[in-house]
């Protein structure tokens, strides 16, 4: 199979045999993969990952190992998205770790993470995942929508962590791919959501989704220029500099949700958290069922965020293009597959 692996700060094409399956695992043919900011950060050294990156995908189950005939009938040929955290049970550990015993499988002490930590990801023709990680995609959801299930689930996680009904409005700091999904999810629950970003064309996309927008410079001058504050604010800039402005914009006794992941440290003072008595919530992955339901209902349509689709064999060019200023979601498509629209 064709895949792309991290080699220093670039992707290298590789041809290799199909991966072997553990019992209870599935071989998935990737239909479309999405390039995420985390993939870019991996090329900069995030998690020191050296395999095949990519964790956003829509695929088709091709093979199963160690399962019953009924299970094969249920899964073979189905379009699926997959949760990225691979926990103790699927990796064969017995007994499972203390976090898995508490059903915190996303925080498994021994976990591998698709395309991020010790397990090859979706920038390839095929990938493997435990069957327990897979979710069937309804026919009503196109491939171009389904490839957003994983990041949309991460956006939905905020609604599980924070009781948004106690707020009248919220702000999202950042205008990138994840920030756009977060703002759309919050807009399904709140009458007013404001996005702060430094790209006018990206903010225009937000306004089309009934999200207010404000242009900022994305540098230290924003600390003096931005005056509005919010009781609920989500930091999703993907930049180390975003946290200082996020603290400034969060009201006393307010809630600050952190979504950015990046390589390196954030130079920031923490005294505002103490003085303003802020509640700081770290937020990562979310429930796929909720993301799939949002897509099925039509309340969130991520397709306007797609900037360009490349064939898989141009993955290196695609990830370079994804790093250009103003570019939104870049997709990789398996050549020769009929895409479900």
Notes on the structure:
With 341 residues, this protein is an alpha/beta fold. The chain contains 13 helices and 18 strands. Strands 3, 4, 5, 9, 10, 17 and 18 form a seven-stranded mixed beta sheet that branches. A six-stranded parallel beta sheet has the order 13-12-11-14-15-16, with helices on both faces. It has a three-stranded mixed beta sheet with strand order 6-7-8. Strand 12, helix 8 and strand 13 form a beta-alpha-beta unit. Helix 6 packs across helix 7 and helix 6 packs across helix 12. The protein is globular. It starts with a strand and ends in an 8-residue tail after the last strand.
Describe what is shown at a glance.
By secondary structure, the protein is of the alpha/beta class.
State the share of residues found in helices, binned by percent: 25-40%
Instruction: Report Rg.
Output: 20 Å
Biggest pleated-sheet summary = 7 strands, mixed
Arithmetic mean of pLDDT? 94
Overview features:
alpha/beta; globular; 13 helices
Topology:
Elements: E1 2-7, E2 10-15, E3 25-35, H1 37-43, E4 56-64, H2 69-75, E5 79-82, E6 85-86, H3 88-91, H4 98-101, E7 112-114, E8 118-119, E9 126-130, E10 134-136, H5 143-146, H6 149-161, E11 169-173, H7 177-187, E12 192-197, H8 200-208, E13 212-215, H9 222-225, E14 230-235, H10 242-249, E15 250-258, H11 271-275, E16 279-282, H12 288-297, E17 306-311, H13 315-322, E18 329-333
Helix pairs in contact: 6-7, 6-12
